[in-house]
Amino acid sequence: MLEYARQIHDRLTQVILQNKGLPQIAVVLAELLAAPVRIMDAHYNLLASARVAETADSLQPENMQAEYLALRKRQLLCPEQKLIAIGSAALPESPDQVLYPLVVGQEVYGYLSVLTSKPTLAEMEKTAIASAATISTLEILKEKAVWETEERVKGDFIDDLLENAIITDTVLRRRANYLGFNLEKKFAILILQFSNLNTSPSISEAHFQETKQRMFALVRFSLHTYQKQALLKYKNNKLTILIQVDRDNAPDGGKEELNQIATALREIIAAETAITTAIGIGRAYKQLADMAKSYREADRVLAIGDRLRNKDFVLFYEELGPYILFAGTANEAELLTFYTNTVSTVLAYENQHNSELIPTLEAFIRCNNGLKETAAELFIHRHTLKYRLSRIREISGLDPENSRDQFQLLLGLIVARLLAKI
Question: Using CA atoms, how far apart are residues 371 and 134, in angstroms rounded to an integer?
């Protein structure tokens, strides 16, 4: 028994010394046990596997997340428990397996999973799993240290870009090249705002930070899957992404590419968590030095989009249209005053009498003041249209047929939507 344990230790130690990492640890353990092996991080994302087909259900991200949630719900992921035997009959979301948490102190760094339906394991098998778990934990800690160093370097670069702290173009290009960016491409900023990330006062700070890190890992993994060159950094509990636009020569300047990525991120987050995500996207620029501008644009998009589209959207700065005029207006009292002086009385009258004045005004503006076209769109007689326009003039004191007054009414409608009056 002792000789067998020494042989296992020697084989696994060689893996570490040869810097072959978690994939080879999984291979060695799978050979020793003649069983499939998975190694996951603390959030149950797959890190390595052996003797498992890539198409197997037990390796599909959506199935693994369902398994993880089921295990947590049943409180089967306690750090104190080792060699947790789980049967698919008792827990349908999980395959038959023996699960071994990778723990240092009370902190879980991952899980080692042996897919087997054996009711009991031999002592030698338990020894092999325990040894592989120890070596896997050391490897994850080593990779974590490297990752944290890399993320600090990347995060510092984002901070310096957004604060315009990089003094010369030479320094900027050198740092960007080091991080793998193609400076012939365009770049843009995406900001992800997780609306219900920390809405409950009962959520502990530890749980809040764990959820943030899980979201970070999920987004980073998704971007890696799409083979996107990007840097991530939390700023004010919003996840900022500096992304390289690969299809920047497309007629839309890469807008469709960014929309596909943002939509995919929002859908992945929604599918795997209970968190809704709003994504604001600044304009793409050729110069990295312009990322501070793209960041401000993306942040303004979130401020406006939060008023217009609730908490779950993907919105570009270019799509704000006239709302851009109010993107920097932080004082709601100013907006309320403008609303009061323009369309508030019309809206109040409409709510009381259901008079269709607001739809009429919007259609009139949309039809470029054409009486015939507006009446046709609204399916009303021209006399009815002229009566409604006169009522708008009487109630608001602004003439919708006068270009200057109409402009104020249009801005009033925009502000009304920002204030959720419409």
Answer: 79
